[in-house]
Protein 1
Amino acid sequence: MAFKDHFSRLADQYSAFRPVYPPAIFDYLAQVCGERQIAWDCACGNGQATLALAERFEAVIGTDASPQQLAAAPARANVTYKVARAEESGIESNCVDLVTVAQALHWFDLDPFYGEVQRVLRPSGVLAVWTYGPLQVEGDGIDALFQEFYRDIVGPYWPPERRFVEAGYRGLAFPFAEISSPPFNMEERWERAHLLGYLRTWSATARYVDDKGVDPVAALEERLRPLWVDANSTRQVTWPLALRVGRKR
């Protein structure tokens, strides 16, 4: 399956505006692993999850098929970045304690990827994948505008794989000994401009702009002004995380 590159051209915005995963999810995954020598962060993008793993594992390998995304990832002494597809990592066999995939599993060719995970994991190694769906914004009237933007304005421009995100990956095969995990949320307090910048990182927004030649976020901003008068004030933004964790059989 060809690499579906929806994000290389958005690498700078992706780095600046994407929300941060909660530290608790990485604490939990480190606890689940028997050893903490090597973690592989697959489709690591700008290294958000990679850096959190680097605080808990001796070494981390971050791979992504997009050189532009990796160029935006900060360097760390115990992190090695490399351009590679999920299905062909180039990592040695039986050396990895944890494989993570944050918000990217729906882009993979699953059977070859799962075979690659089985190859690189040590016995009893762990695979953890997670995704997050539509945001929820503090304030009913404001949230309604964001839900309308997600569903009705750019909704027709989401790639077909978006349905797997909205289902929390529950419809995807997962051939590992699944482990129950606690619930996690991402939470941020953002100013209006930051939240609008985040919307511009969506692949659906970029495809809307390509099709219509106009930025739909600008129109949303005008509708927001009467409800979010102080542009410097912050509002709570929440994304429920859907996490699946499994151990190599």
Protein 2
Amino acid sequence: MLESALDKLAESIIGLDEASLTALLPTYKQRMEHFEPTRAWEKAVISFFIINAVRAKNHIFNEQLLQRSKSIPEKNSPGKPTLHRVK
């Protein structure tokens, strides 16, 4: 049950635009840095780390695609990789 909930959450997060998330990062960072023992503070901390998780995932994804594209000769490559880019 918990694994299913996390899977659904991850599926929703994957669809979010990195550029839009990154624009929100300073807001959540500021909220996180001003501790309050509230549910709103807890959600701000989680949101801050979700945004950074998406950024890290996209960085790793892009680096792996670039490494693979360098190791496969152009004529054998079925197509160019689709990078996750900040819009």
